[in-house]
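Final report, results section. Input specification for complex C-07:
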Amino acid sequence: MIRFKKILYTRSFRIFITGLWRDNPIFCMVLGICSSLAVTNRIENAITMGIGVTFVLIATEIIISSLRNYIPVRVRMITYMTVISTFVIVVDRILKAYLPKISEALGPYVGLIITNCILMGRAEAFSINHTLKESIIDAISCGLGYTYILLLMSVIRELLGFGTLFGYKVMGANYENCIAMTIAPGAFFLLSIYLWIFRTILKRTEN
Amino acid sequence: MGNTNLFLLFIDAVFVRNIALVYILGMCPFIAISKNLKTSFGMAGAIIFVVTLTAMLNWFIYHFILIPTNSEIFSFLVFIIIIASTVQFIEMVFDRYFPALYSAFGIFLPLITVNCIVLAVSLFMVLRNYNFIQTFVYSLGTACGWSLALILMASIKEKLYLVGDIPSGVKGPGITMIIAGLLAFSFMGFSGVIK
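Structure output:
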């Protein structure tokens, strides 16, 4: 029990929990909305996107954090972009080689991981002035925080929109597919409902 | 390619496949900027200028440098660097020679680098094999479509904050999403315009 409490109060653990919950990239900072809305119509797309973003985030934070004392302040933005887009090319190549079907379904959204604000945001706000270990923990927790919200979105959208889960039919034969859930309006409404719920729980409001 | 087809391409990019409301791109500034109508107009001007310029530049780079040297896999990296440096260059030129323009939308320029639609237009241009004229029309149309959505959203939100009694949990991003969903529904009405 004492051991458990010790873990609970370490700095690393606090960073981890903050990314998952209090500073969750989607609900609290409202970053990376585009991809979370556009690719969540099927669970497999959402998981692939989540893993892709998490991978790029971890790799970028490792590089930026290790080089943080050598990056000149004036060119730091372009450094982030170069590092991020290099790893996005890696993700794109891997998807094209091993998961061609999902790669086609995601289309340009794989390339658009580059402009996902979470990556630039975390590099600028966190890894540029934190140690390597803390940056890796932050990257994992923000990546997971992003992925589980994509999952929450996609489970409901696939269930209502196609009547399936992971491609398997779960709704009865008489179920009428709710088309609105598979396209843009459904995504907007669902995310706003989630935002409402989470922000009410967190009591984080805006004027 | 006749003129009518180019006109249809423009209408398609502005209304039928609006990049903000159908492809759901460019959401971060869409949520952040749309609080105020005046700043929305500034952002719209900057976006139309930058998107059209970078798409044309990227078309040249892609067709005359990347394809002949067989290095299409680096297109992401090259595109984003072109975009970032163009934006930086425009900012410097405006600051030095056009102070009036700079004060109108200069402050939005750094934000544009991370706006998804600038990169998205270049990626779509490659995916759909557009030629140079088509790229110009498509990028102009897309930027106008996004600006239209932004200005619609800003005008609705300005009115809404005057009269509405919004629950505190949906204030800010939440209510923007709900309005965007309704706008997206209404833009679906355009889907029959082009066969």
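The two ends of chain A are 42 Å apart (CA to CA). The interface with chain B takes residues 30-34, 37-38, 77-78, 81-82, 85-86, 88-89, 92-93, 107-108, 111-112, 114-117, 120, 180, 183-189, 191-192, 195-197, 199-200, 205-207 of chain A (CB under 8 Å). This concludes the modelling results for the funded period.
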